Structures are given as C-alpha cells and as structure tokens.
Amino acid sequence: MNRVTSVATVRRSLSDLMAANSALVDAQARASSQKQLQRASDGPAQALAALEHRGVLRRSAQQQRNASDARSWLSSADTALASSVDELTRVRTLVSGARSGASDPNARKAVADEIRTIRTAMLSLANTEHLGRPIFAGTASTDAAFAADGTYQGDGGVVRRPIAPAVDVQVNRSGTSVFGTQTATPMDGNVFQVLEALATAVEAGDDAAMATGITRVDTAIDRVESAQVELGARARQVDDVVARSETADLDRRQALSELEDVDIAEAILDLKAREVGYQVALSATAQVSKLSLLDFLR
Predict the structure, then answer these.
(1) Is residue 16 included in any domain, yes or no?
(2) Could you give the CA distance from residue 24 to residue 68 in angstroms, rounded to a whole number?
(3) Of the four listed, 80, 109, 233, 283, which is most buried by Cβ atoms within 10 Å?
C-alpha cells in the first residue's frame, strides 16, 4: 500500500492550484485582448505565418501610399493638360476670327493681347506643381519647368512609383514632349514661341503667318491630347492595380484574423470554465491545508 504524506498532498494541491491559476490568467488574456496568440510559444507555426502576413500588409500599405501619390500626380497632369487644350482651342478660334476681312487694327490688337494673356496662362499650366515639384520638369531640381521666356529648365528624366510587387508606373511626361521644343524660328518652336509669334502676326495682319500659326496650334493640341490620353491610361492602370491590391489585402487580413483572433463566445465560455476550475482548486487546497496532526490521530 502506498503512503502519501501530508506534505506531498499539500505540494500536489499547491501545484494544481498554480496550474489552475495559470490557465485562468491565459484565458483572461485571450478574452481581454481577443487574440489567441499571446506569444510565439503559443503556436510557433501560426506566429511565423502571422508575421509573414503582417510584413506583406506593411509593404502593401507603402505601395498603396505610392499609388495615392501617383494618382495625385496624374490627376494634376490631366487637369493641366485639359486646361491647355481649352486654351489652345480658344487661340485657334481667336486667330480664325482675326483672319476675317472685317477685323480692323483695333480688333486685331485686342486679339493679340488676349493671345499673350493665354500664353501667360499656358506657362502657369506648364509649371503646375505636385507637392512643390514641377510635374513637367522631369527629374530636374528646379522651381519651374519653363522660364518666363519659354525656355525649358527641366530634363527628360522619368518619374516612377512602385505600386505593386514588380509593378511600377511612370507618372510624368517631360515638358518638351508636351509643349514642344524651343527653336531659333519662333513659329516652329514650342507652344510659347508659337503663341508669341501668332500675337505678332495678328497685330500685323499677316494672313500667311496666321495660317501657319493655326497649323502649329493644331499640332500643339494634338501633342497635348496625346499626352493626356497616355497619362489617362496610366491612371487607369494605377486604379486597376490598387483595386486588385485592396482585394488581396482583405483576403490576407482575413487569414491573419483566423490565425490570431479568438472566437469571443468560445473565449468567454473558456474563461468561465477556468474561473470555476480555479475556485474548485482553491476550495480543495483550503480543505487540505487546514488539516493538522490531530485530525489524523482522531
């Protein structure tokens, strides 16, 4: 027959009590944090998978910020280009009217002044900024893409934004590819030279030069519209990539939740069960610990 001493019984009771208390504490932590993984040792494989999911989500968040910046950049460019087309179309209308025989010198002077005003507006559009950076200056460090005389101050550098794994998008067009290149012959130069030459031709009543100018304006409109279409396609690409990325992020967050989160109802039931178990252990320990030698001699 095995003999169990009172000391061994007390030790065993205290051990069971501590185990019950530890289980209760763990259950309380799960219920309060609503996370089943409190530490890596709770599930090494699950913890490793959760870390991987979180790493991918952090990278995706950065790429989403890049995509937001790309959309803002492309939106600014689209607005500037659309306004540029409107301004150039207005110039075409003005010059066509100035070529009519009914246009007198005063009327032509008014048209020339308006063309010069449009030229100033075009310069402002060509110097559109995004977060303090000229969007048509390439990668050049300059305050403005074009100087007041129409000289290009940027470069042909490409600005790209990574918006998804192995996917980056160009968000810019150089100023020369949109507004033309400056030349020694104003009527054959960039849009700013053409507009100034047109204003001079209108003032002088030079019909041949005005006809040539209209052709140059049509060419400028086509060039700006081509850039607008290209940047619009890139904006759609950004939107499509972002939509797919958001869907993938939702799936990954669901997988992360399945790894980390607890079932609330199950957690509460487990907590109640642990509380009852701990109370029972406390009661049993109290009964054992109050026994003395006299209780055994009775």
Answers:
(1) no
(2) 47
(3) 80
Rounded to a whole number, what is the distance in angstroms from the first to the last CA of the chain?
21
Range of the domain at 65: 53-256
State whether residue 167 is helix, strand or coil: strand
**Total domain count, the chain:** 1
Whether residue 296 is contained in a domain is answered as no
In a domain, 293, yes or no: no
- Cα four-point dihedral sign 175, 176, 182, 185: negative
CATH number of the structural domain spanning residue 94:
1.20.1330.10
Answer whether residue 66 is part of any domain.
yes
Q: What is the pLDDT of residues 27-42, one digit of tens each?
A: 566 665 566 666 656 6
Token readout for 272 is: 């109640």
User: Which regions of the chain are under pLDDT 50?
Assistant: 1, 293-294, 296-297
Nearest to 26 by CA among 256, 267, 281, 279: 267
Rounded to whole angstroms, the Cα distance separating 122 from 197 reads 15
DSSP string, 107-164: HHHHHHHHHHHHHHHHHHHHT-EETTEETTSTT---S-SB-TTS-B-S-----EEEEE
| Sign, CA torsion 113/114/118/121 | positive
